[in-house]
Amino acid sequence: MRTATVHINLPALVDNYQVIKTMAPKAKVLAVLKANGYGHGLVTIAKALPQADAFGVARIEEALELRTAGVIKPIVLLEGVFNTGDLAILAANNLQTIVHTKEQLHAILTADLDRPLKVWLKIDTGMHRLGIEPEQFNAFYYALTESENVHSDLVLMSHFSCADDLQSSSTQAQFSLFNQLTEQLPNARSIANSAGICGWQNTQCDWIRPGLMLYGVSPLIDKSSASFGLKPVMTLQSSVIAIQRVKKGETVGYGNAWQASEDTNIGVIAIGYGDGYPRHAQNGTPVWLNDRRVPLAGRVSMDMITVDLGPKSTDKIGDIATLWGSELPVEEIAKHSTTIAYELLCNITRRVKYI
Ligand SMILES: *Cc1c(COP(=O)(O)O)cnc(C)c1O
Fold first, then answer.
1. Is 195 in contact with 341 (CB distance < 8 Å)?
2. Which of 32, 129, 162 to mutate to test the pocket of ligand 1 (most atoms within 8 A of CB)?
3. Are 175 and 191 contacting, i.e. CB atoms less than 8 angstroms apart?
4. Ligand 1, atom 14: nearest CA belongs to which residue?
5. Of 34, 161, 195, 249, which has the maximum CB count within 10 A?
6. Per the CATH hierarchy, to which homologous superfamily does domain 234-354 belong?
7. According to CATH, where is 3.20.20.10 located in the chain?
8. CA 91 – CA 95 distance, rounded (Å)
């Protein structure tokens, strides 16, 4: 019998990349691979995307793991360097960095480097997380452009806070501010993540930065991945390890949190929050088993979940259940668990087998 297993569908990944290219034929693609390739496997995903123009990661360790695995493509550290000493590592490994603070600027201007670094200057256009203030832009721009430590093809970038919501006015406001600061300059520009690419086509600029949609998940609220032609790359499965008969009125699991409204069969599946299945998944969360959806019945345990198979079920021990993936969008499981697909994908734990 099989316990928790993740199947990674690399042809689907490549198809999703093609969908992105069709949506943004002129833009270069920085494929975002942070958090272990959104839980899909950092090196596996990088090696399956030779078409990408560059990769984006969040930590220098992720970039170095790619280099160690033989990936030679440009890699951008999306949060910049955290320690001044890392600049020499960047230069030695041909890594690019974002600059979003005056500390990072100062470190680059004063570093003793063998060769110039390629830099992406991040402007805060309204998200108020990372980025320099618009008023600081000119000073940063000229300092970087004049520095011998900085490669001449400085990229100007920002990030959207609400692009997943097509009703929000923030995206247009952020994009206008970004244009106001950067449109007249000769530099390459980048602002769109997956939601920007799918929902705000005019924001694609020179570089797009897709993460979520590469993995076949819809970046827009209330739009399915299939509506964009995207296919889920990750399918999470495990097996039925027990079937219990319960009577009307009996309860199931910790806290007796589910009660049978009729005599029924309960399937026990070998997956739990110890594998990355969300503990907050509510009663009724769908599980795909033998060509139908069965509802979660009772709390998620560390190693198991329980589902209501119905009174006349014919399911057997050893049957394979899909928790999310090709037959069941992870977006749906996220909705039932008061979280987002991003979190579910990157929370898969070490004991889960990858195929
Ligand atoms: C994570 C990230 C992305 C990708 O976002 P998605 O919503 O997954 O497409 C793009 N840009 C930056 C700066 C990021 O940190």
1. no
2. 32
3. yes
4. 78
5. 195
6. Lyase, Ornithine Decarboxylase; Chain A, domain 1 (2.40.37.10)
7. 10-220
8. 6
CA-based Rg of the chain, rounded to a whole angstrom?
23
Cβ neighbours of residue 291 closer than 8 Å, sequence gap 6 or more: none
Report pLDDT digits (tens) over 335-348: 999 999 999 999 99
Q: 28: closest CA among 73, 78, 90, 94?
A: 73
Q: Ligand 1 centroid vs 251 CA: distance in angstroms?
A: 43
* Span from the CA of 191 to the centroid of ligand 1 (angstroms): 10
pLDDT bracket for residue 222 (50, 70, 90) = confident
- Res 125 pLDDT > 90: yes
2 pLDDT band, cuts 50/70/90, is confident
Band of pLDDT at residue 223, cut at 50, 70 and 90? very high
CA of 209 to the centre of ligand 1 (A): 6
Average pLDDT, the chain: 97
- 38, 62, 78, 217: which to mutate for ligand 1, most atoms within 8 A of CB? 78
The size of the chain, in residues, is 355
Q: Say if ligand 1 is within 6 A of residue 78 CB.
A: yes
Q: Is the CB of residue 287 below 6 angstroms from any atom belonging to ligand 1?
A: no
Residues of the chain with CATH 2.40.37.10: 234-354
Q: How far apart are CA 266 and CA 313, in angstroms?
A: 9
Query: Per CATH, the architecture of 10-220 is what?
Result: Alpha-Beta Barrel (3.20)
Q: Show Cβ contacts of residue 260 under 8 Å, excluding neighbours closer than 6 positions.
A: 246, 247, 248, 249, 250, 251, 252, 297, 308
Catalytic residues: 34, 254
C-alpha 254/C-alpha 297 separation (Å) is 11
Average pLDDT, integer, range 268-284: 98
Span from the CA of 30 to the centroid of ligand 1 (angstroms): 10
Give percent of the chain with pLDDT exceeding 90: 98
Q: What one-character-per-residue DSSP string does 301-353 give? A: -SS-EEEE--TT----TT-EEEEEBTTB-HHHHHHHTTS-HHHHHHT--TTSE
Measured from the CB, is residue 231 less than 6 Å from ligand 1? no
